[in-house]
Structures are given as C-alpha cells and as structure tokens.
C-alpha cells in the first residue's frame, strides 16, 4: 500500500469514515481504491481488473459503463436538474416512472411513493403503516414482524426491522414494536430428520405462535425479502411462502415484500415475488431500479393500503411526509432508461439462463471439503465456507469468510463475505463465458484456501 502522506490511501485513512468497515483494521490495512468500470469489471488504481461478482452492492444490473444511463442523466440534468413533488408539483420523469412501475407490478398496485434509499423506503413504510392504523381506528395495530437475519436497512426503524446482531448492538436497537421470527435457513436451522417441507411448516407455526402471543390485533405487517440477501443468500424452503401467506391471511396482516435486492430480474423473473409466488400488499424497490447509477428507491402499495392513508392526510390537511430528493428527476430518468434496457435486452431471461449455469457450477462445489452448502436462485448465490473437519471450534464466526475473501481478490473476483457465506450476485448482463470465469476463480480460490488451512 502507498502510504506517502499525500497518497490516496493515506488520505482515505486520515479523513474517510467507512460504512460496514472495522475502522481500527482500516487504519492499519487501508482501502482498496477503485478507479473505473467496464461491463462486469472494475479496475483499481493500480490497474488490476476484478470481476464485480457482487454488482457493487447487489445493484449494478447493466454493468459499470452503460452509456445510455450516462446520456439519460446528462440530458435530464440539462433540462430540469431538480424538482420535487411537494405541494402538488410534479414532473415528467416521476409521472412516467410511477406509471411504468405500476404497470410492471406482479399484483395490482395503486400508488408509488419515491424515496432515496432502501432504508428510507422501509422507514417510510413503517410510518405509513402507523398512520394507516390510526386512520382505521386501530391505534394498537402497529407492530411489524420481521425475520432473524432479514435485512431491511440501517435507519432507526429499518435497522430495527433488520435481524442481524451488528445492526442492533450498541445502537440501542431494535425499537419497541418490531419483532423477529425464525430465519428460514433449512441447512442451518433444520433439525435432524426434519424435511424441508416440515421445516417450512415449523417456520409458519413459529410465526403463528408469535402473532397469537402478541395479539393478532396488534400486528400491522410482516416484512421479508422474497429471498434473503445480506443475511446470507437464504433461499426459502419449499412451501415456505405458501404457508407464511396463509398465516398472514388468517389475521389480516399486511405483507411487505422487500424487493430491494430481488427486484428487476435478480432471481430470473422480474420480481422475487413472482419467483416465489408472493402476493404482497407493499413492495420496496431500490438498487437495480437505477442500477445504482443514482441513489433512488420507491415503494408501491395496493389501493387498500393507500386509501386510508389518503383519507387521513385529507382530514389532517396534508401528508406530513416527503424528502427533498424524493422523486428526483435525474434518478427517475435514469431508472426509466435502465428499465428500458433491462426489457429491451431481455436481461431477466439472461438472469434465468446464466443463473442456471451459475447455480449448477456452485452446486458442483458442494462436495468440496470447505463448502458446507451451495445455494441460490437465478443470478444470486452463495457458498457456505466451513472449517477443516475436526477443527470447527478453532474459528470465530466470520473468520473463514474473511480468509476466503482474500483468495477471491487474488484471483480477480469480488465476492462478499456474510459471516462465512460467500455471496455471488453478478450484473445481469453477464455472458456464459464470464460465468465460467467466475467459477474458475472460485475453484482456484478454494484450492488456495484449502492449502492455507492445511
Ligand atoms: N432492503 C434490502 C433487502 C437490502 O438488501 C438493503 C441493502 O442492502 C436495504 C433494504 C437497504 O438499502 P440501502 O442500503 O439503500 O439503505
């Protein structure tokens, strides 16, 4: 690492407080500084090329240098660089995008509300649910059930819905009224002799028991990713969603599908809700909506969700909620062009086809002594890295993932360690040859890792 006082590395250490980083390790180790992108690749300042096997943060669907998105942003910047939707104001890109999203929804949706990040969208949804329950004269119906290892963001409310320890510890979270039910990870949570379907039944029974013990009239909604992403790429067990939805239906509890990772093709269908036959009342959208070229998010809701909120705001005189950057015209223009590209190039079908190749390749590593489980759907997958047999006790959680990550980087592949699971989530534009390149890099990395563990 270049540690001359004026180097980028030294200035990064001196001034830049990083997200999701151990600051004390960073002070010693310094940053990996990216310089430019091209297709599925990014290049660091030393000129090293990496396959961006995570699409940045599960988000760059169309790759790292899409001229059409650059042009869409530039043209909108030149025409109307900023406007808002407060006080009855609107603009073309917001109107076009709202109509487009409602048209794409897998179930009939009524309205779109625009926000700037996944966290902000989920935070806003919680506020809207509270508002709606008050509107309906059910002020006790405010709690939300999420899942252990679910990921819904990092604001006070969305971090509370997130079910991961490091998002709560020392932040004094979760706030009251947010509950976490069983994580549907069969490989980790399934009991001896329990079939996958029986495990799904148990997950639904756990949810039912939580609702009963809290009081069904106190629960406003259940929030979940169709397929858990940041919690470790957890594919729901067979029959899970059918059983969960039956429980929610019994108690009149709304279902929020957090499609922030799954949305716009990731699982091989346009939405994860389609892949897993989910009928949500609210959908959270972000990341691939603009391929992350612009910070942007939204949520859609059914008329049944919207109407009481609109009535209440009508009574009060105004909806007391909105963000300066919400429905940003540049973000909306980029989103429209990005969705056009996804449709024109049939990137959803590509995700299904290349996804099948990626999944078959990952499953091929399942017999490797350091792979506990290979899992995933479409272009999102993971390998669970395990310790050498008999030495399981010698490793702290996350240590194997961190060690594995170094081998991936050495082999030119960016993955992400979620504890000891290594995630793969490449851009939707990936080709068959590039999927093979990822699998070759994984194979070489596993060999290097095994040698290190000897
Ligand atoms: N929801 C899901 C499913 C996510 O994966 C994420 C981020 O990874 C979020 C919400 C939060 O999004 P943001 O980081 O834009 O706040």
From TrEMBL:
Keyword field: Aminotransferase, Pyridoxal phosphate, Pyruvate, Transferase
The protein's required cofactors: pyridoxal 5'-phosphate
Highest taxon listed in the record's lineage: Bacteria
GO molecular function, one term: adenosylmethionine-8-amino-7-oxononanoate transaminase activity
Cited InterPro entries: Aminotrans_3 (IPR005814), Aminotrans_3_PPA_site (IPR049704), PyrdxlP-dep_Trfase (IPR015424), PyrdxlP-dep_Trfase_major (IPR015421), PyrdxlP-dep_Trfase_small (IPR015422)
Region forming the signal peptide: none
Pfam families in the record: Aminotran_3
PROSITE patterns: AA_TRANSFER_CLASS_3
Family: Belongs to the class-III pyridoxal-phosphate-dependent aminotransferase family.
The name this protein goes by in its record: 4-aminobutyrate---pyruvate transaminase
Organism of origin: Marivita hallyeonensis
